[in-house]
């Protein structure tokens, strides 16, 4: 049964990887005809998106593209990555236009305003750009002020009202008829057009290209590279939580059963979790050091009693490494909480089934030792207290003495007792008989 559980965990790991799409097709080569690159800007704004857009912009430049259309649908992400991508847009020799397909929130609103012009699709929204700390709380005034200034700057560069951008960042900035002092500004596509934040509303990219006099230009895109696809897949919150669950459950089962192979599955699952986040640029190698230190402390706790101090320190190190690896600490803690609950249930179910397996009896005592099963416990020797006898061998401090005509194993109360010395029993502790010279 343990072998089957281990095979199931391995199968889950491989199934997660096999659902990845195939190798991405090659990027289109340069052409003498003017072309347009439509580049998706989807998901969390992070270091992996920054690397992908850097590669995509380079491909558009080398192909002599007439324009780049950023098709935006993002809830936001890291400010550092948003700043880097904004600089990339500004430095691009190929004109960059934004087309908000669904959501341009937080850092997404900043990137939408960083382009040459901003267009939106029916049903799309833009705004809610208040920066948050890793713990989910509002950022301090220094970060808030810098972020507001950058939002105002990109809005002014596009010829938009900078107050609209500021209201997306600060609740205290109120736009009459659109928000209140206790809310962040988020505009629908129609509101954005009314306030001239959006330069137009178009049902599709094709309609937008027609407006830009590029209807006949061939459309190209830059697919994600296999490694980028893998990194984005592994850092998806559901997939990352799944690997955390497998890792925690496998290690817990390994500790309970002493099965090192299952422990290896747990370490492999954690390797997939941390590896994906490191490659995606969400974490550095320091999280691996912290995680390894945590595991080492947990192993030490198993052999060196420390009243739980070493174990708690190791657990804290592992949890901190997980939290630091996510896009935000809040997201990491949420994934960890879900993984702990699910792993707890998995371990309970797994151990319940393992108890029925023959291998379990090799790990845990399955039956009680009763008289009916032939078990004979140690005899009661308390009645020997006060009895005298003669040492058969020297006590160093253990040896043999003749007590009441029976040879019994005894131990001195600490001193050396020569052979043939008369002794008295001073106390008994189960089958242990303590004597001293009479």
Provide keyphrases for this structure.
single chain; 438 residues; alpha/beta; 2-enoyl-CoA Hydratase, Chain A, domain 1; OB fold (Dihydrolipoamide Acetyltransferase, E2P); 3 domains; seven-stranded mixed β-sheet; five-stranded mixed β-barrel; 12 strands
Radius of gyration: 35 Å
Count of helical segments?
14
Any idea what the CATH architecture of the largest domain is?
Alpha-Beta Complex
CATH topology of the largest domain: 2-enoyl-CoA Hydratase, Chain A, domain 1
What is the CATH class designation of the largest domain? Alpha Beta
SSE topology string: HEHEHEHEEHHEHHEHHHHHHEEEEE
- Give the tally of β-strands: 12
Give the tally of structural domains.
Answer: 3
N-C termini distance: 61 Å
Structure notes:
This protein is an alpha/beta fold and 438 residues long. It has 3 domains: 189 residues, Alpha-Beta Complex (2-enoyl-CoA Hydratase, Chain A, domain 1), CATH 3.90.226.10; 132 residues; 56 residues, Beta Barrel (OB fold (Dihydrolipoamide Acetyltransferase, E2P)), CATH 2.40.50. The protein is built from 14 helices and 12 strands. The strands form 2 sheets. Strands 1, 2, 3, 4, 5, 6 and 7 form a 7-stranded mixed β-sheet that branches. A 5-stranded mixed beta barrel has the order 8-9-10-12-11. A hairpin with a 2-residue loop joins strand 9 and strand 10. Helix 9 crosses helix 11 and helix 12 packs antiparallel against helix 13.
């Amino acid at each position: 049964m343990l072998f089957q559980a281990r095979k199931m965990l391995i199968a889950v790991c491989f199934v997660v990887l096999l659902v990845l799409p195939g190798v991405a097709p090659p990027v289109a080569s340069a052409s003498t005809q003017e072309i347009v690159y439509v580049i998706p800007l989807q998901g969390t704004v992070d270091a992996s998106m920054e690397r992908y857009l850097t590669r995509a912009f380079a491909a558009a430049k080398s192909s002599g593209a007439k324009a780049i259309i950023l098709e935006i649908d993002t809830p936001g992400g890291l400010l550092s990555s948003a700043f880097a991508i904004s600089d990339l847009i500004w430095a691009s020799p190929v004109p960059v236009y934004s087309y908000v397909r669904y959501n341009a929130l937080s850092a997404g609103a900043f990137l939408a305003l960083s382009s040459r012009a901003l267009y939106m699709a029916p049903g799309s929204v833009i705004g809610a750009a208040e920066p948050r700390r890793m713990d989910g709380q509002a950022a301090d005034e220094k970060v808030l002020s810098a972020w507001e200034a950058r939002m105002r700057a990109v809005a002014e560069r596009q010829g938009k009202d900078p107050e609209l951008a500021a209201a997306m960042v600060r609740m205290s900035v109120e736009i009459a008829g659109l928000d209140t002092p206790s809310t962040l500004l988020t505009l629908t596509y129609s509101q954005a057009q009314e306030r001239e934040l959006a330069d137009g509303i178009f049902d599709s990219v094709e309609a937008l290209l027609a407006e830009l006099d590029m209807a006949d230009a061939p459309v190209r895109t830059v697919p994600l590279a296999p490694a980028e696809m893998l990194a984005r897949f592994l850092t998806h919150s559901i997939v990352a939580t799944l690997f955390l669950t497998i890792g925690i459950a496998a290690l817990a089962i390994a500790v309970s059963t002493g099965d090192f192979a299952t422990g290896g599955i747990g370490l492999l699952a954690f390797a997939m979790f941390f590896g994906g986040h490191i490659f995606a640029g969400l974490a550095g190698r320091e999280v691996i050091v912290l995680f390894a230190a945590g595991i080492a402390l947990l192993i030490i706790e198993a052999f060196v009693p420390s009243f739980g101090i070493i174990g708690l320190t190791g657990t804290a190190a592992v949890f901190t490494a997980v939290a630091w690896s996510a896009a935000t600490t809040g997201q990491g803690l949420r994934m960890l909480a879900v993984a702990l609950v699910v792993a707890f249930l998995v371990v309970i179910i797994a151990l319940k089934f393992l108890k029925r397996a023959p291998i379990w009896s090799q790990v845990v005592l399955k039956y009680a030792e009763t008289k009916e099963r032939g078990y004979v416990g140690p005899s009661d020797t308390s009645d020997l207290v006060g009895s005298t006898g003669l040492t058969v061998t020297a006590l160093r401090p253990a040896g043999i003495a003749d007590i009441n005509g029976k040879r019994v194993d005894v131990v001195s109360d600490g001193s050396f007792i020569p052979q043939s010395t008369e002794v008295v029993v001073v106390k008994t502790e189960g089958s242990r008989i303590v004597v001293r010279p009479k």
